[in-house]
Design brief:
The complex is a heterodimer of chains A (565) and B (301). With 565 residues, chain A is an alpha+beta fold. In chain A, 24% of the residues lie in helices and 16% in strands. In chain B, helix 3 (75-97) runs antiparallel to helix 4, helix 8 runs parallel beside helix 9 and helix 8 (195-212) packs antiparallel against helix 10 (239-274). With 301 residues, chain B is mostly helical. Chain B has 2 domains: 8-139 and 274-299, no CATH class; 143-272, no CATH class. The chains are: A alpha+beta (565), B mainly alpha (301).
Chain lengths: 565, 301
């Protein structure tokens, strides 16, 4: 096999000349030993460094003969088959394998790599020695991070505000929707509209309007008329001032004392006396005595309670005569079915809501002992309760029948009434009828008088006897249980762990029904105090009072302004 | 006393940060909003505004440290303030959100901010620790000088190895090819260099010579020195060769020491820089999240 070895000789800067040589042999050996086909006097070459074999079709096989390997086409290798044009680098020599030409079977070009080129190659092969030379970067991750977050975090959710339906699509996709903006869970009652931000946030970059609230919460009462009470805070207050959503299930009713106290601390001065409500700023330290609603009636028995500040000396008029002490005897009372010990709950039972007490029911609570019989000869008969005309009807009818039927065994009655009628005896004559009915009328009147004035009714009720003669008895109206503090929302249910006596202390020893057994503010303050109290229940205004309480105004119908009133 | 970035100007920025933190905590405790503390109360808005301005200002540090002509205080002062006020930001942001978190953009902003700040903490640690280690490691040489010395040793080792045996020459040649200082991110951070392989190869070559000489191959134990190996060799090789081999091993040990120092130098530098590849891109990402956070909050006010 004939090898063409062409040496490139550089003379000066640009002139190049070639020196051809021929090598006979199958293998082209490369190394520093003198017997090598290509002899390289370079310490970086081993004595027998590598060999090249022509394998035909213009291909060569390059093999390294030492463990350091040989660099072919820039890569260290031990054995490789390459096409012509491949470059072997060894120290400062470059061998380029060429196509066979002329009558040669193989060809190789030998050239020298000059110093500057060697330096360039070694610096290009140098590994990075600082992070800035490696693939990692600060610039493109910054750009990617910035753009991705801005796009997904801001622009895409914002686009849902202008592209209808987009939010629905996004919510069913892994991409962020406006839910990604949700700063906190909405209130339980609002969950039904939570997926549609625009239900409340109707306009971008504007606070939630009250109209968004009143579209559902229609006819919610306003607080007070801003036209009457010229307080900027009242007119400017939005629903959102007190009701902030996205705070989870904490509820949306603000308990803050300041919301009320900011105005009510000096309300009279603030409204220039338009409001006469006392100045209040804190339940524990600055709250007037409760105004208790004492029962009272107008001339024609209309219930007209009278509101006045609670005091220990205050007496009430329930219309009833009742001695708590007598009824609450520890060893009980003699009742028709044996001894009976009464407790508060026998008569005072809460209503279904647990807030107030049910009215006293005579039939359920009193009647077992206080029966309304009127005739010892007919002890099972009683007059009805709480219906004066029905009482007289009952008596009239009872005695009329007794008179006409006869057989009424009372020595004071006329004979015709005492006489028992036998079957077949003739009917009463007109004269006899008149006599019997006259007796009956007198007897009924007497019974009524006894009931009303000495035996039954008068035990508990005040009876007006001046109406007397025609049977028109007048029983004074009664109000035993009711709402004593109309401005506050008190619930017995929330206080049921307390004993009745804890608040209604004097009840067990009260002898007269005009004792006011309703407690005043000091009783509440034993446990409750204002927002900033320590050691007591922090009770803010809203614990007892409503905000939405205007009798006339509702939120969906704004107050008429002073101009168009 | 040495004025470090932490004690700059008598720890002026530490005191400023502590004061800012104390005021914020006091306001937070005193503040009694109608609802649970959140970013929407007046204190929430106030703390949020301060925190947002702080973030923007902290990011300006990246510009400040490149502007060499500025008269706005020293870079050291800026860095000191950057560290302390950046740390205070954790508190401000947590008080701003009232410790409310969720799967949303707002908490993403917080998380990004925390990652940026904690990567910064690593940076502080690196800046305080590594410059000293770096100086000690370099032994008052420069990295270029060490590299130059390595390439000189390579040349001499080749010449010396050639005089011993072709296998040794090949091993040294290979070791030169394999001496790769630096490399990818992991390689730089782990401070690996190829010198160990070269030494191992020489040991193998020595062993080979031993076997050929008929001597029992010594058990290579961890911790045995290269010099000891040469002593084993003494029986099989002639004095001249042993002498040359001993010299070669000395040379390669010196090279290895140098290469290790260069690798460590690269490592120190990489460790001092690597956190910036998290700190900087995430701070820019944080800026986008912050913009989104602020705009989205007022978009649906």
């Amino acid at each position: 096999m004939r090898w063409l070895i062409r040496r490139v000789l550089k003379k000066g800067k640009s002139s190049i000349s070639y020196e051809d040589d021929t090598h006979y042999g199958e293998i082209l050996t490369i190394g520093r030993a003198s017997d090598q086909a290509i002899f390289l006097p370079d310490l970086r070459a081993a004595l027998n460094h590598a060999s090249v074999t022509a394998v035909g079709n213009g291909k060569y096989r390059v093999e390294s003969l030492i463990i350091a390997g040989i660099r072919v086409n820039g890569e260290i290798t031990y054995s490789i088959t390459v096409a012509s044009g491949a470059v072997i680098e060894l120290g400062s020599t470059r061998l380029t394998l060429l196509d066979a030409r002329g009558d040669y079977d193989a060809a190789v070009e030998v050239s020298t790599i000059d110093k500057s080129e060697q330096a360039a190659i070694s610096s290009s092969r140098k590994k990075p020695t600082s992070l800035s030379e490696t693939w990692i970067s600060k610039r493109w991750p910054s750009w990617i991070g910035f753009v991705v977050v801005l796009l997904l975090g801001l622009l895409l959710p914002a686009a849902t505000h202008v592209v209808p339906g987009l939010n629905k699509v996004l919510r069913y996709s892994p991409l962020p929707s406006t839910a990604f903006w949700n700063p906190g869970e909405v209130d339980a009652a609002h969950k039904i509209i939570a997926n549609d931000c625009t239900r409340c946030h109707q306009n971008a970059f504007l606070m939630v309007r009250d109209t968004a609230c009143t579209s559902c919460h229609a006819s919610t009462k306003a607080h007070a008329d801003p036209a009457r009470f010229n307080i900027p805070a009242l007119g400017d207050a939005r629903c959102g001032t007190c009701h902030q959503d996205h705070n989870g299930n904490r509820g949306m009713v603000s308990q803050a004392q300041e919301l009320c106290a900011d105005c009510h601390a000096d309300l009279k001065a603030r409204t220039r006396n338009a409001s006469q409500i006392a100045d209040i700023s804190d339940f524990g330290s600055n709250h007037p005595e409760f105004h208790v609603n004492l029962p009272g009636w107008s001339g024609n028995d209309e219930f007209t309670p009278k509101s006045m500040p609670w005091s220990a000396a205050l007496k009430e008029n329930s219309g009833l005569k009742f001695n708590h002490e007598k009824h609450l005897k520890a060893d009980g009372l003699n009742a028709p079915n044996g001894r009976k010990v009464l407790v508060c709950a026998n008569c005072h039972q809460p209503d279904v809501a647990g807030a107030a007490m049910l009215p006293i029911s005579f039939e359920k609570m009193c009647h077992e002992c206080h029966q309304l019989g009127f005739d010892t000869l007919a002890p099972e008969r009683e007059v009805p309760h709480a219906d004066v005309p029905a009482v007289t009807y009952t008596l009239d009818e009872f005695y009329a029948r007794r008179g006409l039927e006869g057989g009424y065994a009372d020595a004071r009655a006329p004979t015709i009434v005492q006489e028992r009628r036998r079957p077949g005896s003739p009917p009463l004559s007109r004269q006899e009828q008149v006599e019997a009915l006259a007796w009956a009328r007198d007897r009924a009147r007497e019974a009524a008088r006894t009931l009303f004035t000495s035996k039954a009714c008068v035990t508990c009720h005040s009876i007006n006897t001046t109406a007397g003669a025609d049977g028109g008895w007048h029983v004074a109206p009664v109000r035993v249980s009711g709402i004593w503090y109309v401005e506050a929302s008190f619930s017995h249910a929330k206080h049921q762990t307390k004993a009745c006596n804890d608040c209604h202390a004097g009840a067990a020893s009260s002898k007269a029904s005009n004792d006011l057994l309703i407690p005043g503010i000091d009783n509440c303050r034993e446990c409750h105090a204002g927002a900033h109290s320590s050691g007591k229940i922090a009770s803010t205004c809203i614990a007892c009072h409503d905000y939405h309480r205007s009798p006339l105004l509702t939120l969906d119908k704004p107050a008429p302004t002073a101009a168009n009133r | 006393m040495h004025d470090s970035i932490l004690t700059h100007a008598r720890s002026r920025y530490l005191w400023i940060s502590l004061a800012l933190s104390a005021i914020s905590i006091a306001l937070y405790l005193w503040h009694d909003p109608a609802v649970a503390p959140n970013g929407g109360t007046w204190l929430g808005y106030t703390l949020g505004t301060i925190a947002a301005l702080l973030i923007v200002w902290l990011m300006l540090f990246g510009i400040r440290k490149r502007s060499y002509s500025t008269t706005l205080g020293s870079t050291r002062g800026w860095l000191s303030a950057h560290i302390y006020l950046g740390t205070t930001l954790i508190l401000l942001a947590l008080l701003h959100c009232g410790f409310q978190f969720g799967w949303n953009l707002h908490t993403l902003t917080l998380v990004l901010m925390l990652i940026v700040i904690f990567s910064g903490f690593f940076g502080v640690y690196a800046y305080l620790r590594y410059p000293t280690l770096m100086t000690r490691n370099r032994e008052s040489a420069t990295r270029d000088a060490m590299l130059e010395e390595i390439s000189e040793i390579d040349q001499n080792a080749l010449a010396l190895a050639d005089g011993i045996a072709p296998e040794i020459h090949a091993v040294v040649l290979r070791s030169i090819e394999n001496t790769r200082l630096g490399g990818g991110v992991w390689t730089q951070l782990r401070a690996r260099d190829g010198s160990d392989i070269a030494i191992a190869r020489i040991r193998a070559a020595i062993e080979k010579r031993e076997t050929q000489a008929g001597a029992a191959p010594p058990a290579l134990q961890a911790g045995q020195t290269i010099i000891a190996m040469v002593d084993f060799l003494a029986g099989g090789a002639d004095d001249k060769q042993s002498e040359a081999l001993r010299k070669l091993i000395d040379m390669l040990s010196r090279k290895r020491a140098l290469a290790t120092r260069v690798a460590r130098d690269i490592q120190y530098q990489a460790v001092m820089e690597i956190w910036l590849y998290i700190h900087v891109p995430l701070s820019v990402t944080l800026l986008a999240a912050l913009i989104g956070h602020i705009i989205s909050v007022f978009f649906y006010w």
